[in-house]
Prior knowledge:
Layout: E1 3-4, H1 32-36, E2 42-43, E3 46-48, H2 55-60, E4 65-69, H3 72-83, H4 85-101, H5 104-117, H6 121-130, H7 156-169, E5 173-177, H8 180-184, E6 192-195, H9 214-226, E7 230-239, E8 244-245, E9 257-265, H10 267-273, E10 282-289
Parallel strand pairs: 3-4, 3-6, 4-5, 6-7
Antiparallel strand pairs: 1-2, 7-8, 7-10, 9-10
Helix pairs in contact: 3-4, 3-6, 4-5, 4-6, 4-7, 5-6
Amino acid sequence: MYQPRLFSELANKPGASLPPLLKWIGNKHRVASEIASYFPVAYKIYYEPFLGSGAVLGVCAPTEAVASDGLKPLIEIWRTLKENPQRLLSWYRERWERFQESDRRAVYQEIKASFNREPNPADLLFLSRSCYGGVIRFRKDGYMSTPIGVHNPIRPEAMAKRIAIWRNRISGTQFVWRFSEETIDRARAGDLIYCDPPYSDTQKILYGSQQFSLERLFDGIQRAKRRGAFVALSIDGHKKSGDKVCNVPIPQGLFKRTILINCGRSMLRRFQMEGKTLESEVVADRLLLTW
Length: 291
């Protein structure tokens, strides 16, 4: 059975957006509706093998979907959102109240240390909202290293509203902890796969503990295409207002269309430049389509 793209009122309105549940490097919240507007008018099951903050998933709000990620605590956040939203809110509220009532820097360090001792969804949820620039950065040994941000994390009341919005939009999604290739290999004819992997030009420094191979991803996309699935891929495009072209080698004939998506200012460069001016740090991603 095919589900229409227009099941979501946002998917056909470039510029429309949802308030993000999580802050996440490379998230597509500002351009998710534009990306979704290029998707097929109808498709069967929606697959997203690099879930992250789930921006495109949220815009599409598919009736049936499978979303996965290699970071287990992240998937546990999404599962808890679907199965027990009040628990998710209580995780956030408890840490937010500690953060407000005591030395913020010290509390942040305690939460970060707790996560690094035993990676868990409760700590990761708060860290994503309170770390510098929203950049969750992992060293090669898996240690989450991002310092505290200068902003004040959203209040629990605001988080509760976002939880309610997002729970409704992901009600048809199954969340799975597994590597991307396994998720891509589940798709069949008429299914839609949206891939937003770590970008080779920048984000590879953020996910040192996660195994990812662009070559394996392209092989998986080729197999899915042969089975009749639709595949969309977001990947490096232009940096610094187009001065730098990221030459990621794309297998010839794998994709039929390339669309440039203006993503605005770079979150990563904001983190790296410590608040300096970002007028020249505009990013344009490529959206590659197999149809």
